[in-house]
Amino acid sequence: MAAAVKTAPPLRFTGVVAEFANPKTLTDAAKQVREAGFKKWDCYTPFPIHGLDKAMGLKPSPLGYIVFVGGLTGLCLALLMMWWMNSYDYPVSISNKPLFSVWPVIPVLFECTVLFSVFTNIGTMLALNNLPKPYNPLFNVSEFARVTDDKFFIYIESDDEKYDDHKTESFLKSIGAVQVETVPEYE
Amino acid sequence: MSTKYQFTTENKTWQLPMIAGVGLLLVSGIYGVIAGDMHGFWASYHVGFLFTLGITIGALFLVMIMTIAKAHWHIVIRRFHETIAWSFPVLALAGLPMVILLFTSDHHPLFEWAHKDVVAKDLILQGKSGYLNPTFFAIRYVIYFFVWSWLAFRLHKLSTQEDENPDPSNLSIGPLTRLGLKLHIAGTGEALENRLEYFQLRRLTSAWGIPISALCVAFASFDFLMSLQPHWFSTIFGVNFFIGGWVTSHAVLLLVALYFVRNGKLADVISDEHFHDMGKLMFAFTVFWAYIGVSQALLYWYANLPEETIFYKVRFESGWLGWSWFLLFGHFVMPFLLLIGRAIKRRKEALAAMAVWFLIIHFADLYWNAMPALYKTGPHYSILDLTCWLGFVFFFVGLFFYKIRQHSLVPYNDIYFQKSLHFHQSF
Predict the structure, then answer these.
(1) What ipTM did this prediction achieve?
(2) What residues make up the domain containing A81?
């Protein structure tokens, strides 16, 4: 990684990252980090771990409610569109059927609801996850590269109210971290 | 044999509902004779019969589909479905009067196409008489119930045998099945391990069982329900009947599972994760029910053929309009909005309330499908509707408890049983 060859002194340290050997120790540690009262912290793992969300005390995602509103918007817009096109803007009588009827419109309503739901879903999901995120100070820690392979990490930000350089490091070690690194940020 | 999962109960647990069921049906019949309303009695009896038939068919299909898809979560609740599906032969007996009346009565209370004087004056019915005639109907009736019963018994037997005797060398299968099993295992590339034989044999049975019994369901729905209005036809109707039964089958499963969790027998076996999945399936299939209903109405609206639109003319332009609205909201809009969230699917009691609602609304759905054929101007309510329905429900609840006591409540020797116990939702 390019970050590893930086020679200039770092501007500041954004926090500490602790490496854990397996999902079990990570989950136990996450529980203790939460109980210690930290707010600005996160876990990084190569794959989803069952029960980690509970250990971290994550709240259920609001995504579903937002998608529901998005779908409802699509439904209403489709209804408006079909009525406007078929019976107001360009009315054509076909085999003497009524200009506007709910039956032929239902597939359009359904499709537009799905379309709007999906777009809302993807957009909101990215926004809630702060994605896309091309840069993260964690990339400056060379050991962190193995997060996509076989290592498990907890990262505590220095912005956290409870954060204290040495205390936090020794705390992470006390709850089973294999090694703890400070996370530097360069110009 | 493990007794941990054995359900022991007094005999009255199954005897009382059974007696109540038979009693209700008998009283209804006697009431029909006294009040001179045999027509009404047979119609109500038919709706009750179709109600239980739909649930039983749904149970059979769920076992087969979950088996062939290797669904691990379903294993802890599989025995309930197998037990429900086991009641096919009894259902065949329950529907027998409908067939016998075709031969003994000139005026069959349900089927207009069996009235010789009506058919003689009706060109359309004459054209259909090659299919809709008593003899062919009886033959089909036998085929349907033979296929369903055979599959249900085989799957039930393979599953319970594995409990009691997991050694596959005890499998009693014919040479042809053994060859099929070998080819199947070779084809899927899975080693012929210990006990995988049971698993693969159930999958093999399901593989050919699904298409054959699906055809039977489609034609049975044409015969039992669609032919009540013999001029009318709908090619999608089989799916319509099928899906109504599926939703209700999930609902019944959920209530049974909750019963065994509540009485402590399976409290540490069936978790909220399993209930979550049952809730998801109930939600999915009630939406699918609406989808099929709309598909039918949409095509009718475009084609505008008198033989087809008569179905909706009767139901939208008479006293039945209220029922139609009730079904739209009760079977789709309300369950959709209530079940769409995650929180309710993880609350067993709320799900159980929805399950009870689905039992009621499925009855309303069948009532709305069947009754307007006989009462074209509007609903003709009778106490028999309720007593016949409850009679069937009670009787089959009793039958379920009668059978469930005889075997373990869960297939604990299934090779994926442990996986099923530790099942978790992925989000």
Answers:
(1) 0.75
(2) 63-128
